[in-house]
Amino acid sequence: MVTHFVVHEPGDSVGVVVVEGVKKGEKLNGWIMDGDSSVEMTTLDNIPIGHKIALKDLAEGDTVIKYGTDIGKVVKPIKRGEHLHVHNVKTKRW
């Protein structure tokens, strides 16, 4: 079984795509490192390697958690399986 994305901690709201060529509608396998478990989902977007995928629905203003850490806030609603990047998540620093 191919691992398409990696999640660092069970409470994270995003995973990181670790393969090239993830296409919209594709069924993906994810590995949750802390606890060595897995998760499956269908992607709603094409997602480049190294970019994030939402593990749950996120509303505008929600905090994005990666590595168990706050990495920014949602500026546009995001559905489970969608691509997270600068178009829908911004840093809280400025």
TrEMBL record:
Highest taxon listed in the record's lineage: Bacteria
Annotated Gene3D superfamilies: 2.30.130.110
Keyword presence, Lyase: yes
Protein name stated in the entry: (2R)-sulfolactate sulfo-lyase subunit alpha
One Gene Ontology biological process: D-galacturonate catabolic process
Record-linked InterPro entries: SAF (IPR013974), SAF_UxaA/GarD (IPR044144), UxaA_altronate/galactarate_dh (IPR052172)
SMART domains tied to this protein: SAF (SM00858)
Domain SAF positions: 13-90
CDD domains for this protein: SAF_AH_GD
Database matches in Pfam families: SAF
